[in-house]
């Protein structure tokens, strides 16, 4: 008896302890539920946008490119009554129902546009009533984001924005007693308990339980976890009303995968699958999304359209059974196709190299954590047209070179940077031959010998001294030895292993003669040349050795683009940048990155340098460009080829674009490619696709054109045949008159000026 | 006075024959005009960042329009960005071709920027240059 009483006492004590423990655990869970649910803010990725396309009369853009941009935005190629986000193409006319969009300068309402094209230009732009519009800005293409851990992406919605049928469908399929239960459903629970006996823990979860599971718990399937989930669900229901729980559920729910990007929440899913805001979803569309909740991979409508359709129809059926929709609604919805957005998969970004540049530039002003959670909107300078042309040119040419040369694996690599020379806006960035690859970004991080790409710094230093140097000044390209104590003699050689005697300055640059450049650079002083390079925008310190003059310096394509931007704009340095504006999630402007301009050089010497760089394309090492671009474009540029042909470069510019191309092997193997044979073709392919503008640098006031006699390099008189006009800084042109005696030319006299100018 | 007029006329004549940048589009682009109006209204109302944003939009369409560069220089000056104002006015000059009045105005802007910057000598030099281009 006593023993029995004793064991009863023990039992009571045990029960008490158990109850206390349970209470303590419940309390702990309660605190956790409340703290996490209330403090819970969904981490929203910074969203990155390309430049918006600005339509106006006179804009040169092929209609097909505008259509491609609209398709990329998820616009449908057919009218949708009462809705925006579609376009209709009718020959040379394009009707666009542009969606509303919040720009950095405020919201822009939805608008109907009519655009007429002729050839590759916009000839008329009106609204739906035919009223002429001066300018229409399309919404910018989203090009990626800076994502929270697990690459979760979502677009938050308020419950009020979600169509009621969607909620009805969800409840019909996932949790019929949602509005009446207290977090768990005894019947579902009984079912779950039963399945325990059969050894499988599954089913019976209410929406609340599902939310708890996604929010707080790991996905393991144990009894203990199931009980914790149940307890937390009850606690959640105690503290929050059904509307709050439902709204959070709709924003949390996982609805599929876009490569490495996880699609969360009904708002993003509506955009991703249907190109619509959640409020515009049809009954059938929302049924598909609701059906996918059960298994986004299993019912992935892109990969398993049949299965997804069946699942959607089942959702519709259950909703009908719940009498949430009418028979007629059901029949109509059932009869529709899936109607998916044809938008190609993007993953975290289709342009990882550019997004990396954006990310780095953002980190100057923002915390990593904020970028990954605050939902900032980043408006960038990327031009998808230019980017596409750059990617295509690089990948296709590299594949071709690989086939021709068969230098084994891994194959050739390359990088491209394109910028607007006037503003320094980066329009395209390709970091390697696979533009979707997220890793090593050669455009920014490949430090490669730049070779002759640095030579313009020498010539600009010289031309800034008009009393000593003009484009016509003869330079000595004879054998040259540089001696300095403590280091071996330096004997630069030309690419063709020959010396060329006296050559005019312009020709020495056009043909990229190393010896003439080395002699000129050392005469000017290495430090002075490096100071010029720095003013051109090379921020990294360069070694003050004469070999640096010929490009024995490791720099990235991006740094080269900065240097050539300063030249291409006539001496005005604008830091290369990828961001225009940043706003908060709701469109409040946070920061502008204004156009910045600094006059780094007087316009006159830069004008002369550009004239010489145009000669590189007309007569010199880049004359192959003539196969891509007509001579009237007057393109300027410079090739670069490093020792043993390991790196091939071309940096060049037209009136509206500046591009730098690098080609070589990652392991610095000998590539047997030159700037002319490898980089120029990539550049040519790319620019030809973009129909560039003519390069016409404005002539500074202090520049005069002087006729020069090509035989003597002196001022041509009236009697001189075939005189050539060259630009000179006022007062620097040769004063001596050429004899122009009309003496018959001999081979010996047929000097460089003639060969240079093709007389 | 007559002499001065003669000099001015001569200078103007010189400027006119001087080869200039590629010709601006024959008629003012309506898109540019609209953005310019917006920018002026914003600037007048003190919304300088918005004014600058509109001018930059316009410059993306017509990067060789010296009036846009000048207007942007004016906005930067009002924002107290003196170095930028000077750079932008110089940029406007580079596209100004034979437009002496425009150049003169750019040099006056440069003078103001230098003055505000505390560079009195530089400001005086810029004003002298402005004088040379007449008024």
What would you say this structure looks like, in words?
The complex is a heterodimer of chains A (759) and B (135). Helix content of chain A is 38%, strand content 18%. In chain A, the strands form eleven sheets. In chain A, strands 10-1-14-24-25 form a five-stranded mixed beta sheet. In chain A, strands 16-15-29-28-27 form a five-stranded antiparallel beta sheet, with helices on both faces. Chain A has a four-stranded antiparallel beta sheet with strand order 3-4-7-8, with helices on one face. In chain A, strand 19 (482-484) and strand 20 (487-490) form a beta hairpin. The termini of chain A are far apart. Residues 743-750 of chain A have low confidence and may be disordered. Chain B contains seven helices and no strands. Chain B has a single domain (28-132), classed as Serine Threonine Protein Phosphatase 5, Tetratricopeptide repeat. Chain B has helices at residues 2-17, 30-44, 48-61, 66-78, 82-94, 100-117, 120-132. With 135 residues, chain B is mostly helical. Chain B is globular. The model of chain B is unreliable at 1-26 (pLDDT under 50). Chain A binds chain B through residues 54, 56-59, 104-105, 132, 134-135, 420, 422-423, 425, 570, 572, 580-581, 589, 592, 594-599, 603, 656, 694, 696, 698-701, and chain B through 18-22, 25, 29-31, 33-35, 49-50, 52-54, 56-57, 59-61, 63-64, 72, 76, 83-84, 86-88, 90-91, 94-95, 97.
């Amino acid at each position: 008896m006593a023993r029995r009483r004793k064991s009863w006492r023990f039992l009571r004590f045990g029960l008490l302890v158990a109850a206390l423990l349970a209470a303590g655990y419940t309390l702990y869970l309660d605190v956790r539920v409340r703290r996490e649910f209330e403090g819970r803010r969904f981490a929203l990725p910074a969203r990155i946008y390309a430049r918006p396309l600005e339509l106006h009369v006179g804009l040169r853009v092929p209609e097909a490119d505008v259509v491609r941009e609209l398709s990329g935005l998820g616009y449908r190629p057919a009218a949708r009554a009462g809705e925006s986000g579609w376009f209709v193409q009718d020959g040379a006319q394009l009707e666009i129902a542009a969606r509303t969009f919040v720009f950095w300068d405020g919201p822009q309402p939805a608008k109907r546009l009519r655009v007429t094209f002729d050839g590759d230009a916009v000839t008329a732009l009106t609204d739906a009533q035919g009223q002429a519009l001066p300018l229409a800005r399309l919404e910018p293409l989203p090009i990626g984001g800076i994502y929270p851990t697990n690459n979760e992406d979502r677009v938050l919605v308020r419950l009020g924005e979600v169509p009621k049928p969607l909620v009805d469908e969800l409840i019909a399929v996932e949790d019929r007693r949602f509005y009446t239960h207290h977090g768990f459903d005894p019947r579902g629970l009984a079912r779950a308990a039963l399945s325990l006996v059969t050894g499988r823990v599954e089913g019976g979860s209410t929406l609340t339980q599902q939310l708890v599971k996604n929010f707080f718990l790991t996905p393991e399937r144990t009894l203990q976890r199931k009980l914790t989930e149940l307890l937390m669900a009850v606690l959640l229901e105690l503290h929050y009303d059904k509307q709050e729980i439902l709204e959070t559920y709709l924003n949390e729910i996982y609805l599929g995968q876009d490569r490495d990007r996880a699609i969360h929440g009904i708002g993003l899913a509506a955009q991703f699958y249907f190109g619509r805001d959640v409020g515009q979803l049809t009954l059938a569309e929302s049924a598909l999304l609701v059906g996918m909740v059960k298994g986004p991979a299993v019912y992935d409508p892109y990969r398993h359209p049949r299965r997804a359709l069946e699942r959607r129809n089942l959702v519709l059926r259950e909703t009908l059974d719940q009498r949430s929709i009418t028979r007629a609604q059901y029949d109509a919805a059932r009869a529709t196709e899936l109607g998916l957005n044809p938008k190609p998969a993007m993953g975290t970004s289709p342009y990882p190299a550019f997004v990396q540049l954006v990310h780095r530039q953002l980190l100057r002003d923002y915390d990593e954590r904020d970028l990954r959670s605050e939902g900032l909107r980043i408006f960038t300078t990327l031009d998808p047209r230019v980017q596409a042309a750059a990617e295509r040119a690089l990948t296709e040419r590299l594949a071709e070179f690989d086939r021709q040369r068969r230098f084994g694996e891994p194959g050739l690599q390359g990088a491209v940077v394109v910028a607007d020379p006037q503003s320094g806006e980066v329009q395209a960035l390709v970091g390697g031959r696979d533009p979707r690859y997220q890793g090593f970004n050669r455009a920014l991080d490949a430090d490669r010998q730049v070779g002759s790409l640095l030579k313009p710094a020498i010539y600009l230093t010289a031309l800034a001294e008009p009393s000593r140097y003009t484009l016509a000044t003869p330079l000595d390209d004879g054998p040259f030895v540089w001696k300095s104590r403590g280091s071996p003699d330096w004997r630069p050689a030309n690419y063709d292993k020959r010396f060329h005697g006296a050559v005019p300055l312009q020709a020495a640059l056009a043909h990229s003669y190393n010896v003439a450049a080395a002699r000129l650079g050392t005469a000017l002083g290495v430090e002075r040349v490096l100071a010029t390079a720095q003013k051109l925008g090379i921020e990294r310190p360069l070694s003050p050795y004469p070999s640096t003059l010929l490009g024995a310096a490791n720099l990235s394509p991006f740094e080269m683009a900065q240097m050539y931007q300063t030249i291409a704009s006539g001496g005005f340095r604008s830091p290369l940048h990828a961001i225009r504006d940043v706003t908060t999630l709701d469109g409040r402007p946070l920061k502008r990155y204004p156009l910045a301009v600094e006059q780094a050089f007087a316009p006159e010497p830069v004008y002369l340098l550009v004239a010489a760089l145009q000669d590189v394309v007309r007569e010199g090492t880049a004359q192959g460009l003539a196969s891509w671009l007509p001579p009237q474009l007057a393109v300027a540029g410079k090739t670069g080829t490093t020792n043993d042909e390991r790196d091939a470069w071309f940096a060049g510019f037209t009136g509206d674009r500046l591009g730098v191309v690098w080609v070589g092997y990652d392991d610095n193997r000998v590539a047997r490619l030159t700037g002319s044979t490898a980089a120029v073709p990539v550049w040519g392919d790319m620019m030809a696709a973009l129909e560039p503008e003519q390069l016409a640098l404005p002539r500074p006031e202090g520049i005069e054109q002087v006729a020069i006699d090509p035989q003597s390099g002196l001022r041509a008189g009236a009697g001189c045949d075939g005189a050539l006009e060259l630009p000179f800084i006022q007062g620097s042109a040769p004063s001596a008159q050429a004899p122009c005696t009309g003496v018959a030319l001999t081979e010996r006299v047929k000097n460089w000026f003639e060969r240079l100018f093709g007389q | 006075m007559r002499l001065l007029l003669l000099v001015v006329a001569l200078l103007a004549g010189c400027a006119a024959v001087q080869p200039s940048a590629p010709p601006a589009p024959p008629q003012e682009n309506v898109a540019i005009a609209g953005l310019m109006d917006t920018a002026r209204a914003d600037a007048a109302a003190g919304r300088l960042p918005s004014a600058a944003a509109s001018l930059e939009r316009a410059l993306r369409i017509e990067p060789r329009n010296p009036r846009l560069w000048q207007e942007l220089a004016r906005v930067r000056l009002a924002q107290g960005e003196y170095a930028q104002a000077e750079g932008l006015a110089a940029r406007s000059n580079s596209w100004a071709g034979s437009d002496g009045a425009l150049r003169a105005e750019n040099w006056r802007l440069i003078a103001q920027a230098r003055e505000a910057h505390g560079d009195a000598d530089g400001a005086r030099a810029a004003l002298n240059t402005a004088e040379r281009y007449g008024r």
